[in-house]
Amino acid sequence: MFDAKNINPRQISLVNAFTIALVGGLANLVFIRIWWAFIVTFAVLFAIAFFLTHFFIQQFIYRKIKLIYKFIYQTKATKREEFYYKNILPQKSIDEVSEDVEKWAAQRKEEIEVLKQNEAYRKEFLQNLSHEFKTPVFAIQGYVDTLLHGALENQEVNRKFLHSASKNVDRLVNLIDDLDEISKLESGEQKLNLSVFIIQDLTREVFESLSFKALEKDIRCTIKKGCESPVNVYADKEKIRQVLINLVDNAIKYGRSGGLVEASIYNTDGKNILIEISDDGLGIGEEHLPRIFERFYRTDYGRSRNIGGTGLGLAICKHIIEAHGHSIHVRSKTDVGSTFGFTLAAKKEA
Asked: Domain 194-345 in CATH: superfamily?
């Protein structure tokens, strides 16, 4: 019995040829009443009907299907693909071909959605980049113009304006450096200098380097109780220092006065080490969490800009950790605090 839903061209040809040959053979038997004539007629009609049916199906149906497949794959067929078109494709049912086309259409739709999303992100990124550059450039321009139009001779304002212009120049330099850092990380130009080091020691060094900022807000930076035992990680020490500086600096910026910034280190499975930096500050709204690691994305644009930074710190952290083959994540709740965590290899793989 043939499966009507998955019948292929050869089966169609067989059924059609058998029907025609049987009808012709029976007619011959009724009128001539000779058995051998019935057999000859059946055989001849079967062969002719099978050949013609199969030929026309191949030429007028599967030839079109072959063109559809070539359009789907959009490449010049190799010898193996030509063999597929000639021998394997004709064995497929129309339903199977239809499924292939539907899968292709679904893939194209998904690709188009991704492209649209990427285009939207690109436009937003360019708008943010333009804004980030224009702000310090316009400020510098304003200070310089004011100085050139007479303020340079005014001892009370010239040093103040030059100092403000210098701060905006530093901001531009930092922005360019951060963009260059991300570009190198994405392109793979910046190679990792992997080594084994104790993550607690590096964390303490970062706390010490940012102690002045923490002191200004009376924030205590510490390693969580129970996580003090030395844990080795295999990573680029200076790159991980950069990640920790960004995360701890953010924790201090957005932490509450008199609060706590805490580092936790866990050996999860003997192969990976989880490092978390937590604060008890402003927290991040749930709607912002999926995009927090995007370039220039700010949960509160005005407040973030007043606090400082280029808006690229978390994006750089993400690229550095991913360059190590690991991931970074965030947990946060408004007015409760945030925890940023990432994993690193526990030791060098053999």
From this structure: Histidine kinase-like ATPase, C-terminal domain (3.30.565.10)
